[in-house]
């Protein structure tokens, strides 16, 4: 009986010690100071033992370094994410509305933002695998995706547009795509609509720009893609392309930022950032900046 009591006491004591050390860990600055002192105190006379101690302290550094937060995106979707000309975007190499929102999220978390540019279709798997922390990629909130990720509150409303050659008047509605060749970006709402709802030959491309290249190259009859992106590519090729709308057929969509299940703190921060940017008018201003303002990609 005594033994059992001793074991219980021992476990309790362990718990207390563990509890204390956990509390002590928090402020990054304390550990930073420890490392700074150690470095200052270093003299060549230090014993091997002292050096070993130092090595241990220094090994702590990665934990106290400034936090990074990794945004997953597919940077081929102007005005939401694109590679800025010559890396001269407002935030470096990558630019666009989603990047600007991600910068605000990083600020709110006091973290450095890292951008992981990959195929749109693989982003949810990347998120689940932990190589990214959130997806900001003009991603439509869909019930099937909600089985794999949590979405933020919506931050942008969209619809699918058809883009066709300027002199092609055979396509006036979504149904007119039946029997034709249609380019889309793989794994997108445009892809799901054309392959599930229509009887068309769907050609999924990894990058949105490749779908437009297929249209301009005469390899397909139309591209089905998000409205703002369609508008952007048509503006860039005003003599070659035109937009065909059939909003009733395609239906409304809303973009959200995706996080892993259980990441409630991150999701709360993201929602607060979106709500604040919406309320202050910053979202609307940024949209203008990246579509018609100085932040629009140069053709
Ligand atoms: N909004 C579309 C979707 O979520 C396309 C997004 C994209 O291609 N970046 O499927």
What keyword list fits this structure?
five-stranded mixed beta sheet; 15 strands; binds glutamine; 299 residues
SSE topology:
Layout: H1 2-25, H2 28-41, H3 48-59, H4 61-64, E1 68-73, E2 76-77, E3 81-83, E4 94-95, H5 97-109, E5 112-117, H6 123-129, E6 134-135, E7 150-151, E8 156-158, E9 160-165, E10 181-185, H7 189-197, E11 201-205, H8 208-216, E12 222-226, H9 227-236, E13 241-244, H10 247-250, E14 253-255, E15 258-259, H11 264-279, H12 282-291
Parallel strand pairs: 1-5, 1-6, 10-11, 10-12
Antiparallel strand pairs: 2-3, 3-4, 6-15, 7-15, 8-14, 9-12, 9-13
The site of glutamine (GLN) has 12 residues, from loops.
Describe the structure.
Helix content is 44%, strand content 19%. The chain is of the alpha/beta class. Helix 5 crosses helix 11 (264-279). The chain is globular, with a radius of gyration of 26 Å. It binds glutamine. Glutamine is lined by residues 74, 77, 120, 137-140, 185, 188-189, 208, 226.
With helices defined by DSSP (H or I, 4 residues minimum), what is the helix count? 12
Helix/strand order: HHHHEEEEHEHEEEEEHEHEHEHEEHH
Main sheet: which strands, in order across? 5-1-6-15-7
Helix content estimate? 40-55%
Q: Radius of gyration in whole Å, from Cα?
A: 26 Å
Look at the helices and sheets and give the structural class. Answer: alpha/beta
Question: Hey, roughly how much beta strand do the residues contain?
Answer: 15-25%
Bound molecules: glutamine
Q: How many beta-strand segments?
A: 15
Residue stretches low in confidence (pLDDT < 50, at least 5 long) are: 4-49
Mean pLDDT, to the nearest integer, reads 84
Sheet bearing the most strands, described?
A: 5 strands, mixed
Terminal-residue CA separation: 81 Å
The 3D shape can be described as: globular
């Amino acid at each position: 009986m005594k033994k059992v009591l001793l074991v219980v006491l021992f476990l309790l004591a362990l718990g207390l010690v563990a509890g204390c050390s956990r509390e002590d860990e928090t402020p990054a600055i304390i550990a930073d100071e420890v490392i700074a002192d150690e470095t200052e105190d270093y003299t060549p006379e230090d014993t091997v033992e002292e050096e070993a101690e130092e090595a241990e302290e220094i090994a702590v550094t990665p934990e106290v370094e400034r936090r990074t937060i990794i945004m997953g995106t597919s940077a081929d979707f102007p005005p939401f994410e694109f590679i800025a000309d010559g890396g001269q975007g407002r935030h470096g190499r990558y630019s666009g509305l989603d990047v600007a929102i991600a910068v605000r999220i990083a600020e709110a978390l006091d973290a450095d933002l890292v951008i992981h540019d990959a195929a749109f279709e693989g982003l949810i798997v990347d998120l689940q695998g932990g190589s990214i922390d959130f997806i900001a990629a003009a991603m439509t909130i869909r019930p099937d995706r909600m089985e794999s990720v949590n979405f933020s509150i919506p931050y942008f409303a969209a619809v699918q547009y058809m883009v066709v050659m300027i002199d092609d008047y055979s396509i006036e509605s979504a149904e007119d795509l039946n029997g034709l060749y249609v380019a889309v970006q793989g794994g997108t709402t445009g892809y799901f609509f054309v392959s599930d709802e229509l009887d068309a030959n769907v050609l999924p491309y990894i990058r949105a720009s490749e779908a437009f290249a297929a249209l301009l190259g005469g390899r397909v009859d139309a591209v089905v893609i998000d409205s703002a992106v369609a508008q952007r590519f048509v503006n860039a090729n005003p003599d070659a392309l035109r937009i065909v709308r059939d909003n009733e057929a395609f239906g409304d969509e809303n973009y959200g930022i995706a996080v892993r299940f259980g990441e409630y703190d991150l999701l709360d921060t993201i929602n607060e950032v979106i709500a604040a940017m919406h309320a202050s008018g910053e979202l609307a201003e940024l949209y203008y900046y990246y579509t018609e303002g100085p932040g629009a990609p140069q053709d």
